[in-house]
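Comment thread on ticket #2218

A.B. wrote:
> Attaching the input chain for the structure job we discussed in standup.
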Amino acid sequence: MKSLRLTTVGAAIGLAALTAVGPANAAATAPADILQAGAKQGVSDGYPGVVGLVRQGDTTRYVHAGVGDLDSGKAAVSAYCAL
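C.D. wrote:
> Ran it. Output below, let me know if you need it in another format.
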């Protein structure tokens, strides 16, 4: 259950971090690239893990950064995303 809570909190943090990504990451222009930069920034700011998704038309792209389970150190990933 700890992993699920971290993933849920991480996703919310990723969206919040996305709003903080501005001119410093102007090179990242695709929405998924912008969200990935926000996820990485969230981890840099101290969040253990961030998971998010971007849907454009028929395409869905998952982004992740950090860890999803502090005990095992497993990567933060969506349940729908295969690594």
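A.B. wrote:
> Thanks. Noting for the ticket: Residues 2-66 form one domain.
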